[in-house]
Amino acid sequence: MKKHKKSQARKERFSAILLSLLFLVVAVAAAVKIFVRAPQPDDAVPKPVDAALMSVDAAQQDETDKSVSSANARKEYCYTILVSGLDNDNGGSDTNILVRFDATGKSIDLVSLPRDTLLHHEWASNKLNYAYAKGGTELLCQEIENLLGIPVDFFVTVNLKGFIALVDQIGGVDFDVPVDMDYDDPYQNLHIHYSKGLQHLNGQQAMEVVRWRKNNDGIGYATADIGRIETQQAFLSQVARQLLKIGNVPAMAQVFFKYVKTDLTTGNLVWLGTEALEMGMDAVSFHTLPGDGSGYYRKESVYVLDPEQTLALVNEALNPYNEPITLEDMDILVP
After folding, report:
1. DSSP letters of 259-295?
2. CA distances from 14 to 136, 160, 161, 182, 206 (A)
3. Whole-angstrom Cα distance, residue 137 to residue 301?
4. How far apart are the first and last CA of the chain?
């Protein structure tokens, strides 16, 4: 593990938010006959991505990994799952939610990872969303492991078309739009015009609402991207409730398999979905990594994590081990 370190660029593009891992996958059970089983995560501790940042040599690292692995025994039936929304145009992963699914503890925690979260690198961009563009899902998972000091067991990705199709398939969503939205971008053929209040949104409309960050006059969420994350989380809650009432199960399963990619097996997904349904919405909690969105590093606007608050949140909502992790297990850069 690495030591704790102290030390409006481009336009926002929407990436699909977490859509159905917890509830939609139950649809698969009614569509196909499969072997249902709990996932089997790799118990290995997070591995360093950049050898240049390692503070110990390979032999020492192996010993460290063994000791940490031994001390941090896994909780039974407790998994971490990275759910990412992919940016169709830019090749990045602008929306990332790390889920801890604790079947034994009967809790599901979803932690939003701001797209501008600062990573400990000297890349062309040191933001979290750049990791996917640089090395795909594998590198993105590794970077999150190094940042937070916990393993990412599985991944789920969905793109923009999948987001729209899934919302349309459930018949749209009743959603309380948080603010008046008045934004036009002719270059993207994007026109977002909604009044504050409860409205029924189809897939395209939902995409526009969760994509919005500011109006034509520059006025937007007071907390910038964190405000947009809060809107995404609120919308996700409504999607989850809507999914509990779906009727066309085979069609939902078909849409899911067309647009969603994951390293979880069909049996794993059905097991997770069944457990989630038994827990219900009361078991679901939303969080956001704590930090400062006004940070600046290497001529780039970044979201700088608060080390102590992040550690507390990780141990509360993400840690799959029996023992708490420490700041020594994390790699949070504070400029």
Report:
1. HEEESS-HHHHHHHHHHHHHH-GGGEEEEE--EEEEE
2. 18, 8, 11, 16, 11
3. 23
4. 20
Report the distance separating Cα 304 and Cα 297, nearest Å. Answer: 9
- For 303, the enclosing helix (H) or strand (E) is strand 300-305
Distance CA 169, CA 185 (A): 27
Contact 307, 4 (CB under 8 A): yes
Beta strands in 11-151 (DSSP E): 78-86, 93-102, 107-113
Strands (E), 154-222: 154-159, 173-177, 181-185, 190-194, 197-201
More confident residue, 83 or 47: 83
Which residues are within 8 A (CB) of 218 and not within 5 positions of it... i.e. 6 or more apart? none
In order of 45, 129, 255, 297, the CA distances from 331 in angstroms are 14, 17, 38, 16
Return the amino acid letter for 283: A
Residue 4, pLDDT score: 42
Higher-pLDDT residue of 325 and 36 is 325
pLDDT value at position 52? 30
